[in-house]
Amino acid sequence: MSEENTKNLTPDTDGAQPANGESTDENLTQELEQLRDTFQATYDKTAAEAAEKDEDTTQDGPVIQAIDYSDEKAYDELNDDDEKDDSEEEEFAKRARPKKKKKSGKAGLTVCVIVMILSLLSTAFLAGALTSVIKVPDSADYMSNMIKASSAKTAAERIKYHKAALEFCTEQNGLESNRQKLIESIVVDTCETEGFGAAKTYFDENGTEDMKKSPKTAEFKEFVEVSDKIGSIADKAFDAVQSYADKEEKPDFKKIAKEIGANDLIVNDIAEALESIYNGAVAAKAASSEEQIQSVSKSYLTAYQTLNSMGASCQLLLERTALMLYNNGYAYEANIIIKNYMTEDMLASPVTAEFSAMQNDIKSASAFKGDIYQLASEQFAAGKTSKDDFTSLVTGDGLSEKIKESIVSMIADAVEAMEAEKDANLTKASSLYSLALDSEKALGISTLGTAWKTTEILLKTGNIQGANEIATKYISETELKAADSENTALYNTVTQLYNAQKNANEIFYTAYSNYYYSGTAIDKASVNKDLDALLTSSSNNYDKAMVDYYKYLTEAFTDKDTATMKKYLEEYASLLKDFPLVYSYDLIGQYISEKDYAAAFELTDKVLAINKADDYAGKYASLRDRMNEGVEKGLATAEKSMELSGETNYAAYEAALCYLILGNYEKAIELTSPLVEAGLSYDLCDLVKVLEALYTEKSGTAAETLKTLVTQVDSAMSQSSATVSDNAKAIIDGTKKPADVLMSGTYNFS
Length: 750
Fold this sequence. Notes:
Elements: H1 3-7, H2 26-54, H3 72-79, H4 82-95, H5 111-120, H6 123-129, H7 140-150, H8 155-166, H9 179-194, H10 196-206, H11 209-213, H12 218-227, H13 230-247, H14 253-259, H15 267-286, H16 290-309, H17 315-327, H18 331-341, H19 344-348, H20 353-363, H21 372-381, H22 387-390, H23 401-422, H24 426-443, H25 448-460, H26 464-474, H27 477-481, H28 485-518, H29 524-532, H30 541-556, H31 562-575, H32 580-593, H33 597-610, H34 615-629, H35 631-645, H36 650-662, H37 665-678, H38 682-694, H39 701-719, H40 726-733, H41 738-742
């Protein structure tokens, strides 16, 4: 509120008397009541006008301006800008004033009269004269957001304005008492828009136990009551659909949800969980392959995640999931479920006798004394790859048949990883070695050989942090002391690289986080000085390389001098010449930005020679083929890369561009959707906006998916003040065709 109006408002004090200590006379009380009626009528009219104007998005803004404080940075900046605050509050005060209204025998009640009366009356009259929404001087923004919320057409909009209003509910300004109703409203609306789990998370972070004991609204009381029933509902979920699954008869899941206790607030979430359980139970009947078993497990765990986010422990569901894996020969994966999801209390008090028996069986795995990696190496060297070849290797007193099957599967995974490594598919090899390692740990058997190999493969793929985690987590000091010279050198290399990266990153990240969260410019000279200080006479090439790399990043976020960036990257690469998959990615990107395609593609080939399934290098191999041999060849290369890597990230983006050129917009949208969910780049924003323009006349699933993508893209671009690039605009307005942009040597829109 403006300073002038602040001076004219007196504090709200209960039971205060006029200055002379006397009671008010009847006439003055009547005058005050008229004033209150006039103010309330004008307030109601203002609210209606704000709601009406909010419908027209072409307006400059509503009658009473609202500010979205969901962006923490924007909130901080606004509070730092006194001039902007004053203008907002003055605008509110001006627009909220009642118009002149003549009364017989009295002067018109203008805003001046209101101000004069309010300033002359005692504080006792102020409490009666003003409605609760304007009884504190700085309530303008609170009122604005509450008005916007009251006229919101959707629960999502209402949440937005109620959250903004909540920011002003503090003890200092007297609005603290409004917090509970706002939080209750947000919780109930979140149930509708995002589900009960999200609503519970919000309440857990913002509500209190006292609120649960004394709800202010019937809807929130319903939320509290159903929260207490989630556990029993979850316990009934598995059996509730089992009879339908046995007959493969798909039921009405919402009906079943209500039958086991779900009310309207949670019926959709419970129905969703029931459907996941049903799908898993149906699939489990015919499951025989590992892929099918994993699909069943995924369905059960999806249901678990839904129910658990609502506050249910889901012990019965977890026991059934572990038993399903165990009974199909995947005892080690059953134990992963136990280790990752079940508490000590659950394990101490199993719900089913079958689960208790399984626990005892898994403990018997400790009788196996072999080393999986060593056994697999011997079998691979002898050309043996069948599980039948490995059965005789698994011995030990007390080992159950199911545990033996699990250990045989681990050996098979390690042998398959060795085949993939030989075939230069490090993506597959690292995945299989990691799976075998997790399995060994889950069953409590030796992990040493697999840990050394997994560390080596992860380093080759450029994953320094992952390699360091395996080395330091799985290899003890005693085992390290007993290691041969080759493994000792590997351990030292991994830990030195990791420490060099960590030390340099800490310096850069401090400056970068200030830039990201508050907009503070990165002080390049200061960052570079701190990076240089890391280097001493004892520094190795890894330390020097990481200093160069973070100087490159600092340049990229400040002056963006191409020559300087390239210099730092090439020094970085020279110092890490033995680790192409550590340094290549940034350098390829730099070469591409300079249109030095020959250098970029030469480095791409170097990466693919080490790991033919590298998704990032696959993207640029596809780009090269698209530029030199045509879009069909580029598409084939991108799809082959996705097949090898099992990923739909970098190469999928390139494939989407190829489909765009070919006019297959549905396929382009299909590939784009997960990329948007994974994280937007502005090139991808451009691609989605182009697809929107080219797909406007279509209907169906692809069109619905596109609407969701466009919403996400618009939000991201708005937050970053970004705009569609000129190349994308040219395609949208028809002055260029997709092929004109994408086949001319330019790899993306920007």
